[in-house]
């Protein structure tokens, strides 16, 4: 359930799917040193480094802060950096708030979305598992949609927005 906490990390098993698909994660722009023990991106930005103020490039994995306006700002930044060509491929993990403006904009810009079967049990800095009240979605930006569908299909169902 909603805790009010904004520091929740992607479980290792989901990061492994992302890493296996991308080959390597060049940048995690909304991260922490603790999260990097699992994500292992070549570079990451912490809250203090303000990932929104930085240039993003390469293969990006984004698990943004879910509070407003941060989630909208981070997903918009991902879309912009991808459209500018600096981000070559990206996967973003968010809740499946399909009715929100930021979700609609991200869905229209991405190549595919995997809606998870079941809910992702995010991990707190102290190791506690979250019990989200809604499902999640992995957005994919890039040209390997068939490969994305094959890799992420076991996690849920994959759609290609029109």
Question: How would you portray this structure in words?
Answer:
It is a single chain. The protein is α/β, with parallel strands linked by helices and 162 residues long. It contains 5 helices and 7 strands; from the N terminus they run H-E-H-E-E-H-E-H-E-E-H-E. Helix 2 links the parallel strand 1 and strand 2. It is globular. 37% of the residues are buried. The model has no long low-confidence stretch (mean pLDDT 94).
Number of strand elements? 7
Q: Spatial order of the strands in the main sheet?
A: 3-4-6-5-7
The DSSP helix count reads 5
Give the low-pLDDT segments: none
SSE order, one letter for each helix or strand? HEHEEHEHEEHE
Query: What fraction of the residues are assigned to beta strands by DSSP?
Result: 15-25%
The largest sheet, given as strand count, sense and whether it forms a barrel, is:
5 strands, mixed
List keywords for this structure.
single chain; 5-stranded mixed β-sheet; alpha/beta; 162 residues; 5 helices; two-stranded parallel ribbon
Give the SSE map.
Layout: H1 12-22, E1 27-28, H2 36-39, E2 43-44, E3 58-62, H3 70-83, E4 87-95, H4 101-109, E5 112-116, E6 136-141, H5 145-152, E7 156-159
Parallel strand pairs: 1-2, 3-4
Antiparallel strand pairs: 4-6, 5-6, 5-7
Can I get a quick summary?
This protein has about 160 residues and is of the alpha/beta class. It has helices at about 10-20, 35-40, 70-85, 100-110, 145-150, and strands at about 25-30, 45, 60, 85-95, 110-115, 135-140, 155-160. The chain contains 5 helices and 7 strands.
């Amino acid at each position: 359930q909603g805790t009010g906490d904004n520091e929740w990390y992607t479980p290792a098993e989901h990061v492994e799917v992302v890493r296996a698909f991308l080959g390597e994660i060049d940048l995690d722009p909304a991260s922490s040193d603790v999260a990097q023990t699992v994500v292992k991106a070549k570079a990451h930005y912490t809250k203090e480094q303000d990932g929104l103020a930085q240039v993003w490039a390469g293969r990006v994995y984004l698990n943004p802060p879910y509070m407003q306006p941060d989630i909208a700002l981070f997903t918009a930044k991902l879309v912009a950096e991808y459209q500018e060509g600096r981000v070559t491929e990206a996967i973003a993990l968010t809740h499946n708030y399909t009715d929100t403006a930021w979700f609609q904009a991200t869905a229209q810009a991405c190549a595919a979305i995997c809606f998870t079967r079941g809910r992702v049990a995010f991990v707190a800095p102290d190791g506690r598992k979250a019990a989200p009240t809604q499902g999640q979605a992995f957005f994919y930006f890039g040209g390997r949609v068939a490969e994305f569908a094959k890799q992420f299909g076991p996690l849920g169902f994959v759609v290609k927005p029109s």
